[in-house]
Design a protein that fits this description.
Length: about 350
């Protein structure tokens, strides 16, 4: 295991080393929000951030990804044959990802990479990605990672964890891949005992700062159909405008739609993120829509995250506690309150 200490300026310079071998993504501030951008895009990385507005999921699971392409040209001997589109699986590193968002990849992995199904594109993007996490010294009031199996310095899924010690960053490798990444960084010194102790104290105090919780202990024992028919769904859904913000921002929402786009004689089959909050999501070709009312769609989102997932995977809820949907829902629908309704029903 490697423990290295860098001044904050040196850390940004140190990333130039691995940049020869990895596409490096760092948090960058644009307007009021942060997002992950390639290092060296002309904008300075800003590691003094709480979290990005969109999670980092698009770096492993692109919002739009060309799956296949085909020719419709009758003169082409390969007309109408689907061919897999070229994809970029060159190594990449997400530097500064928060532990809740790394935990999100673990939750999503159960859907895309399990003994029954293996999504080749998700898996290859994931396997070419190094996750360099940044612990949270001051979690937001809406964060509840500690009640869904995570924590502000949770190490699961991370290859390296960074501790912000004020003037310096302590970088701790957690896997061989992380060690390899850190070995390519330039500068820095071996961490001294005092820095290691400070890092431990920081992690303990950050966990204590999280006082927002989500009750989940009784979800498993609930009878699915009773929860489905519970009387509170109309009230929960009343204010929702089906904007889809909650699902697009969420690191653990994975639904997609597949569309064919044709221009001239060239066709592309594209997978795009979709949202269970959109009426079109379940519209059948026949015109029938099994979720044609708003409360059906809102119920689906919460039942999936807090009941179907719980029953299917027996490994917690489909939520990493990042709090984005709470912070950004325009009408203040709060998953913590809905979980309480479901858990206590
Ligand atoms: S962000 Fe809020 S209003 Fe928009 S779809 Fe989600 S719950 Fe509904
Ligand atoms: S459901 Fe909300 S709090 Fe949970 S991971 Fe998704 S955006 Fe974050």
């Amino acid at each position: 295991m490697i423990n290295r200490i860098f001044t904050k300026d040196d850390w940004i310079k140190a990333l130039e080393g691995p940049a020869d071998d990895y596409r490096i993504f760092v948090p960058v501030k644009e307007g009021d929000f942060h997002s992950f951008k390639p290092l060296g895009n002309g904008k300075n990385p800003d590691f003094e951030y709480q979290n990005t507005r969109l999670s980092a999921k698009s770096l492993i699971y692109p919002q739009s990804e060309r799956m296949f392409e085909y020719s419709l040209d009758e003169d082409d001997p390969e007309a109408n044959i689907l061919k897999e589109s070229e994809k970029d699986y060159s190594p990449q590193a997400i530097v500064g990802i928060r532990p809740c968002d790394a935990h999100g990849f673990q939750i999503v992995k159960r859907n895309f990479d399990n003994p029954e199904f293996r999504d080749p594109w998700w898996v290859q993007h994931r396997e070419s990605t190094v996750l360099v996490g940044m612990g949270c010294n001051a979690p937001c009031s809406t964060c509840f990672c500690t009640s869904v199996g995570g924590g502000p310095f949770n190490e699961d899924m991370l290859d390296v964890l960074l501790y912000d010690l004020g003037e310096t960053f302590l970088a701790k490798s957690l896997t061989e891949i992380g060690e390899e990444f850190l070995n390519k960084t330039e500068g820095g010194n071996v961490a001294d005992d005092e820095s290691l102790k400070n890092a431990e104290a920081l992690a303990a105090s950050a966990s204590e700062m999280i006082n927002s919780t989500i009750p989940t202990d009784k979800l498993k024992e609930k009878v699915l159909n009773e929860l489905f028919d519970a009387p509170f769904w109309s009230d929960v859904a009343f204010a929702c405008i089906n904007c889809g913000t909650c699902t697009f921002l969420c690191p653990t929402c994975w639904c997609f739609d597949i569309q064919d786009e044709v221009l001239g004689k060239q066709g592309d089959r594209i997978r795009n993120w979709d949202s269970c909050m959109f009426p079109l999501f379940t519209l059948h070709g026949s015109g029938h829509n099994p979720r044609d009312q708003k409360f059906h769609r809102v119920r689906q989102r919460f039942m999936h995250k807090l009941k179907y997932y719980v029953d299917k995977y027996e490994n917690g809820v489909q939520c990493s506690g990042c709090g984005r949907c709470v912070r950004h829902c325009p009408v203040n629908i709060d998953i913590r309150q809905v979980a309480e309704l479901m858990n206590n029903y």
